[in-house]
Please model this.
Amino acid sequence: MLFSEKIIRFNQQLHIPHSLPQNIMAFNPFKNDAYAVMVMEQFYRKFYNDNLQRFFIIGINPGRFGAAVTGIPFTDSKRLIGYCGIDFKGKITHEPSSVFVYEVIKAFGGVEKFYKHFYINSIVPLGFAKLSSNNKWLNYNYYDDIGLKNTLKSFIVQSIRKQIKFGLHTHIVFCLGSGKNFNYLNQLNEQYSFFKKIVPLEHPRFIMQYKHNQRQIYIEKYLMQLQQANSGLI
Model:
């Protein structure tokens, strides 16, 4: 089975097997949005229609304006159209994390070259929102609630194992988020030995929100780490 078909099957079967804590919901575009499923299939069949081995870049969980809309991690609809050349007739979204990731992809040599060597997803491949005190649903991270994190553990472990079987390198993995996400992935890795080495990188959202004027420094840092891995230097 081609790499693309493994990803598509994985996405189509995604579901959280346990009930979530009160006032927290998961969003799953692969269950609720037939158009997102079609776009997701187009994307992976365009860039992953092979059996090449790739490096895993693993984030936190999808945001409401990126993967929750397009079905593709760190890819909002603007980047999907402008960089990936895939038409999108749904909601046009702008996600700062996606802006940074695609600046890195451009610096690496473009989407075809980048996706030939790297696969991006998240520790939790489905996103979350929490109902605020003024009844608005806000983006939520899996580690923001201990009950949610504990509920998701078996789902997380199974998801990582399934994705490794796509054909991912296990001697090194890149973790987006050098704080809580990195710490939790480290804990899991100590228990389950998924990867030999975890390389932490500052999360794109953190860079765009707090280090925007210095983002070129972070692009170069990403580029150095990714190129070294791709060249077999780390």
Strands lie at 24-27, 54-59, 118-122, 127-131, 137-140, 168-176, 198-201. The chain has a mean pLDDT of 94. Residues 12 and 31 are 7 Å apart (CA to CA). The longest strand covers residues 168-176.
